[in-house]
């Protein structure tokens, strides 16, 4: 498999759907970390059943990229001997460590792109839940997806759940009557927990500065950079899910990809 180096090497239909900009995005959610713990638990209900279906039965090592408060890290630890979980928010990591004491999960404050094969080795499972969209306002999606692909060990899995831009951008706004709809499916207190973090000014600024792709654009990049990827569009109007397996093949057959030893 040949790693695409830049935009100019992509065929026209697969060019990035937004310009990549400089700078490193920040989590912007430290002041709402407590609220976000409950928010993450409730919103994960939408995609956790799908994740459980596609996770490999057992791997030696897994990585949770953009782990937040560790909502999915615990699930990964049931399928991996050891889990590296990274996030850029110090406050969320403090909550994650307090919640997951004694587990096989190791939490570190790092950005998604700071996890590399040279430093961390390869993983039998690479996972990210609702985090990558924060990168796309700053980085070319081709760079992000090929970076994640390079972390996957031969025969390993890449499992992603991410936010996409709905067909109607108004669907992203939190409206008062949204709580009533959520309350019809959950307790009112849970419904409020889902919507309050999105209305916090720090969280709002974070979401506005993020760069979710359209669903069509995500399909273009995923199918080009992850040949054979399985894409699920039925988890919600703002969610997309990807499952890709790296073939068992030699480095030469993979276009000269270097295999890094476990650190």
The quaternary state of the protein chains shown equals single chain
Give the DSSP E fraction (strand runs of 2 or more residues).
15-25%
Q: Count all strands and give the number.
A: 8
Mean pLDDT, nearest integer? 75
In sequence order, what are the helices and strands, one letter per element? Answer: HHEHEHEHEHEHHHEHEE
- The CATH H-level superfamily is Vaccinia Virus protein VP39
Proportion of residues in helical segments: 25-40%
Summary tags:
globular; single chain; about 260 residues; alpha/beta; Rossmann fold
Structural features, described:
This protein has 263 residues and is α/β, with parallel strands linked by helices. The chain has one domain: 3-Layer(aba) Sandwich (Rossmann fold). The protein has ten helices and eight strands. Strands 1, 2, 3, 4, 5, 6, 7 and 8 form an eight-stranded mixed sheet that branches. β4, α6 and β5 form a beta-alpha-beta unit. α1 crosses α8, α6 crosses α10 and α7 runs antiparallel to α8. It is globular, with a radius of gyration of 18 Å. The two termini are 24 Å apart.
Question: How would you concisely characterize the structure shown here?
Answer:
With about 260 residues, this protein is α/β, with parallel strands linked by helices.
């Amino acid at each position: 498999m040949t790693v695409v180096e830049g935009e100019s090497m992509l065929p026209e239909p697969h060019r990035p759907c937004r310009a990549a900009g400089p700078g490193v995005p920040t989590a912007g959610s430290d002041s709402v970390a407590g609220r976000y713990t409950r928010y993450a638990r409730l919103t994960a209900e939408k995609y956790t059943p799908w994740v459980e279906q596609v996770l490999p039965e057992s791997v030696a090592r897994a990585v949770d990229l953009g782990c937040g408060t560790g909502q999915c890290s615990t699930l990964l630890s049931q399928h991996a001997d050891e889990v590296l979980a990274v996030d850029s928010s110090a406050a969320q990591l403090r909550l994650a460590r307090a919640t997951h004491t004694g587990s096989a999960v190791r939490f570190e404050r790092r950005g998604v792109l700071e996890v590399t094969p040279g430093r961390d080795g390869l993983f039998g499972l690479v996972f990210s839940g609702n985090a990558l969209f924060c990168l796309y306002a700053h980085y070319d999606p081709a760079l992000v997806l090929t970076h994640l692909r390079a972390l996957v060990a031969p025969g390993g899995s890449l499992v992603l759940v991410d936010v996409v831009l709905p067909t109607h951008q108004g669907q992203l706004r939190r409206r008062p009557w949204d709580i009533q709809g959520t309350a019809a499916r959950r307790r009112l207190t849970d419904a409020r927990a889902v919507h309050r973090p999105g209305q916090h000014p720090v969280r709002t600024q974070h979401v506005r500065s993020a760069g979710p792709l359209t669903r069509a654009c995500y399909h273009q990049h995923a199918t080009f950079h992850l040949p054979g990827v399985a894409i699920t569009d039925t988890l919600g109007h703002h969610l997309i899910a990807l499952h890709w397996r790296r073939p068992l093949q030699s480095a030469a057959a993979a276009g000269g990809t270097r295999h890094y030893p476990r650190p």
